[in-house]
Amino acid sequence: MLTVFTRAFKTPDLRRKLLFTLGIIVLFRLGSHVPTPNVNYTAVQACIAGARQDGGNNFLGMANLFSGGALLQLSIFALGIMPYITASIIVQLLTVVIPRFEALKKEGQTGQAKMTQYTRYLTIALAVLQSATFITFARNPAALFNNADCGPILYRESMFSIVLMVLTMTAGTGLIMWLGELVTDKGVGNGMSLLIFTSITATFPGSLWAIQQRDGRWDLFFLVIAIGFLIIAAVVFVEQSQRRVPVQYAKKMVGRQMYGGTSTYIPIKVNMANVIPIIFASSMLALPQMLAQFQSDPSGNNPAWVDWINTYLVRGDHPIYMAVFTIMILFFTFFYVSITFNPTEVADNMKKYGGFIPGIRAGRPTAEYLQYVLTRITVPGAIYLALISLIPLIAFVWIGANRDFPFGGASILIMVGVGLETVKQIESQLQQRHYEGFLR
Q1: Is 273 exposed, middle or buried (0-12, 13-18, 19+ CB in 10 A)?
Q2: Which CATH class is domain 18-211?
């Protein structure tokens, strides 16, 4: 593989793309350590050092993971790529609800450009909302960092200072979005995905080292790494798994030429929903946590429903939390797959172009068959997602690891998925230049 990388860097065009991508990644990581104006950086580091990992807001934990730890650092890139992810999901879901969006989706590249523009606008709006919400949390640092000894982290709480922080974090999100699009256009791979990949891998060494530092046991440290490699191998296997539904296109005469008669297939992945159900489930579970946090009484005289949420829906090691989290992931997996893959639409397109599944009549029987296959393959995919998402919670109970445990949940799915996709793109570019690729 090192030889392949050497050959890739010997190709001027590919070398320029790789170096450009690496430069953007370095710039992105530098911005993650530049503090926002009005933030006491020393106080923030003290709060992080004394923070406990046995509670806190799960959605904030995921947002901090996607920002590479920049969220709790209150840096200019604190929001990371999270507003863009949320905006993309919302626009994709609205495609099913709003006819205008559905029409744009069918217009090809022109319609996709319009959808991208709507996603950008929504990203900025969400960045303003999320930055204002997070600054509200920052005014109560003891609850934000789950550290009772944490003191004030903002120099001033005047309206001008708060607005300046909101504008800075929003501008940081806009800059990240622009950097991601630059990588997509002039670099290697999907820019947004690579920035998320960079954010997650940035927290990887610290999460592993924290396991060793907790008890000072090297045997447990190497055991976790060994188990991690097995999990990565299993995730790679499942992410590459797909059901290939054969499709045959009938031959037809146009003038004196014979067209069609080709065979292809419809790839239906085991994990078609990817990491989206985990994000949905974490977001939904975060809502009651945020409500309970706003209604909490510092003196301890909380309403009964606040105590119930703090007992059962905040701590990740509680069986009720795990059960609710699992049920939500199973539900959102089927929900998201049903939105993104429409068997009736696929069957109609096949019929329009003379395609059929061998042994299945075109039209409605084809749609019913595709729905049957989709349902059967989504069941193991949903169970797989639920098991992967529970790995950080199990590690939290077993070895006291934090919820950003690297070998599980959204982090491992994103790292493996983005890594495989980027390697495939480099592989295809190497093959175009008649070089030996990664896969031998």
Answers
A1: buried
A2: mainly alpha
